[in-house]
């Protein structure tokens, strides 16, 4: 797989986002509903909704008359959006492969594209490690908890997605600046196999030492009101105009890019970040826990986990 060599702002995910936000903002400014736009353009409502949500790209032939209907007639602005629409028509990516058909939600596909192109990230994980940091061994143990809902083929495919995401980040010319908040419970949750968590922690330490991942551990003493996991991506400069967020919990996942929600998540993230153990102490905690778990695994006479 080739590394990403596109400058921030020219990448497909950024271009698609620029087009859909321009369409949504123009529709809102004219006081039109999505249904009214669909009727005027003789499209289905689902088509308008999917374009505005970023699930699909829009063709140039559809974009030009839509911009006219929405009152965007300035030639320079139209040309700019048409060029962005062209840029958003990226080549097929690994997550579009038929192997993953039906296994990834539309929000997940957008999530992977933003992750692949982000200049920096702010992540919060309360129960486990971000997918791109998970070793195949850890991912399998984690996914086996969902064996009643997933087939073995589905589990294997989802493990592959984690490896693919990691490879994309490692092969980029410029890796993102990743700041990860981990709840302390993540360091304690062995999933029944201490050695697996020990090796997972060692793998995370390797990435920290590569210089593009910074971790702080949120201690049990910090009141944490965050629910589920979420990833905030900066697509270029670190301001909310260039940010988008992926959030998931046990029942749903979604892409969020409205300013109010982004600001609320970022304020919460900053509050927990500054109340957490600093990077040095957090790294020491990870190292100590890894050594502890691997020592347990290698101790003489240890009983197999079961």
Describe this protein's structure.
The protein is α/β, with parallel strands linked by helices and 306 residues long. The N terminus is likely disordered. The protein is 51% helix and 11% strand. It has twelve helices and six strands. A hairpin with an 8-residue loop joins β4 and β5. α1 packs across α5 and α10 packs antiparallel against α12.
Percent strand equals 5-15%
Largest sheet: 6 strands, mixed
The helix tally amounts to 12
Structural class: alpha/beta
- Rg calc: 22 Å
Shape: elongated
Q: How helical, in percent, are the residues?
A: 40-55%
> What's the order of the H and E elements?
HHHHHHEHHEHHEEEEHH
Strand order of the largest sheet: 3-2-1-4-5-6
Q: In whole angstroms, how far apart are the ends?
A: 39 Å
The average pLDDT score comes to 87
Task: Indicate the low-confidence ranges by residue numbers.
Answer: 1-10
Could you give the count of β-strands?
A: 6
